[in-house]
């Protein structure tokens, strides 16, 4: 009920305040545009048009602030094209004429006027019907005593008594009150829809393009970091073991005829080294594309990760079915890196991993009771996770005060 009342107040404020703003906007836009076009042949019209467009930009900013209040979120401001750096005074003066968004602002000031007037009339009518109808039991007994007064009940043929008139007016007030939230919301959506399309539509498109570009850059950076780390792990692990294995076999070959017993010991060490190398290669392959994830999905793959972690992990998987490969790989990688970080640095006694789905978003929460201090600064284990999540339009947050506990939250859109 409180949210409904808050919404009614917000919509009413927007619709009533928009009326005087729209009148000023409409008058200045029409007057400035007419004067500018009428005098453009003598050149003075260009500065007048430029000034009118700057005025329209300012009024559009006022409308955008009102839109932010009614939508409950900030709305982007378009990027108005600046004048060239070495432009002259006249070029800078008429620069607003070259901005398409400035013309959209001016056009909005003209087109929104009839919608704003209609929305204002509807708002005042519904509020008047609600207040006067519900207050009828208070003033109805007074107006009934006015000589020659005919109540609404009498005009409708329900009788000429005071009680009948109060009942009819109160009923109408109740109907207006019940429909008030829907009517105000509808008027608000119509009026704000035009403003959003003309005043923020291009800006929202630019923001989306920027997000996609950042996501692509993040994906490239994440993959490059993963490849560099894979190269380092191979160089520091299996490659060194294989070099040592080759040297042992070469030494065994030279001593084969002289000391068979020493050769037997060398071959035994070589077999052990080969098995250790295979184990390292399997671990590396699990970090790239674990077969269990490809074949069976997230739940079994995360269970396998939890089983290999040196810290006890409480796993709560609340999702079923399969998701896109990029999403599953991202979630798996985030859990793998986080558990590795927990095992190496947290000194935790228990770790919890929860995966749930709300709407079209997968929510991953990882917590531990360790010493805290985890962060996403460069050079730390969690540094690349934000970029990897951004590549799939996801978000990543870490709350890890010194002394703990640590909570990692990742959200991934899953369609």
How would you explain this protein's 3D organization?
This protein is of the alpha+beta class and 415 residues long. The protein is 68% helix and 8% strand. The protein has helices at 2-38, 45-71, 89-93, 100-134, 136-143, 152-155, 162-236, 238-254, 260-288, 291-296, 298-308, 325-346, 385-390; strands at 313-317, 351-358, 361-368, 395-399, 406-413. Strands 1-2-3-5-4 form a five-stranded mixed β-sheet. Strand 2 and strand 3 (361-368) form a beta hairpin. The model has no long low-confidence stretch (mean pLDDT 80).
What's the gist of this structure?
This protein has 415 residues and is α+β, with helices and mostly antiparallel strands. The protein has 13 helices and five strands.
Layout of secondary structure:
Elements: H1 2-38, H2 45-71, H3 89-93, H4 100-134, H5 136-143, H6 152-155, H7 162-236, H8 238-254, H9 260-288, H10 291-296, H11 298-308, E1 313-317, H12 325-346, E2 351-358, E3 361-368, H13 385-390, E4 395-399, E5 406-413
Parallel strand pairs: 1-2
Antiparallel strand pairs: 2-3, 3-5, 4-5
Helix pairs in contact: 1-2, 1-4, 1-7, 2-4, 2-7, 4-7, 5-7, 8-9, 11-12
């Amino acid at each position: 009920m409180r949210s409904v009342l808050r919404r009614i107040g917000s919509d009413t404020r927007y619709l009533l305040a928009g009326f005087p703003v729209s009148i000023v906007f409409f008058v200045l836009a029409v007057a400035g545009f007419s004067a500018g076009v009428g005098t453009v042949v003598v050149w003075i019209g260009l500065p007048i048009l430029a000034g009118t467009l700057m005025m329209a930009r300012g009024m559009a900013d006022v409308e955008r602030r009102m839109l932010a209040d009614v939508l409950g979120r900030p709305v982007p401001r378009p990027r108005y094209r600046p004048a060239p750096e070495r432009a002259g005074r006249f070029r800078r003066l008429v620069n607003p004429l070259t901005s398409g968004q400035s013309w959209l602002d001016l056009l909005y000031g003209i087109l929104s006027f009839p919608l704003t007037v209609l929305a204002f009339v509807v708002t005042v009518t519904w509020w008047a019907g609600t207040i006067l109808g519900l207050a009828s039991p208070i003033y109805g007994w007074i107006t009934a005593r006015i000589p020659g007064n005919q109540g609404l009940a009498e005009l409708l043929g329900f009788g000429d008594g005071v009680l009948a008139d109060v009942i009819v007016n109160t009923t109408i007030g109740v109907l207006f009150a019940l429909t008030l939230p829907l009517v105000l919301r509808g008027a608000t959506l119509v009026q704000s829809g035009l403003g959003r399309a003309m005043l923020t539509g291009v800006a929202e498109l630019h923001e989306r393009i920027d997000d996609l570009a950042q996501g692509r850059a993040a994906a490239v950076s994440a993959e490059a970091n993963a490849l560099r780390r894979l190269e380092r792990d191979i160089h520091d692990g299996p490659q060194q073991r294989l070099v040592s294995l080759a040297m042992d076999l070469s030494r065994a070959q030279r001593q084969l005829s002289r000391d068979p017993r020493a050769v037997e010991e060398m071959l035994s060490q070589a077999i052990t080294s080969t098995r250790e190398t295979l184990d390292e290669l399997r671990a590396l392959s699990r970090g790239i594309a674990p077969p269990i994830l490809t074949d069976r999905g997230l739940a079994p793959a995360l269970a396998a990760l939890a089983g290999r972690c040196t810290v006890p992990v409480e796993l709560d998987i609340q999702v079923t079915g399969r998701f896109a490969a990029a999403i599953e790989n991202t979630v798996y990688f985030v859990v793998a890196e986080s558990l590795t970080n927990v095992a190496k640095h947290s000194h935790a006694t228990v770790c919890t991993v929860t995966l749930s789905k709300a709407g079209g978003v997968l929510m991953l929460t990882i917590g531990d009771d360790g010493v805290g201090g985890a962060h996403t600064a460069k050079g730390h284990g969690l540094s690349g996770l934000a970029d990897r999540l951004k590549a799939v339009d996801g978000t990543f947050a870490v709350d890890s005060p010194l002394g703990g506990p640590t909570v990692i939250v990742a959200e991934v859109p899953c369609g």
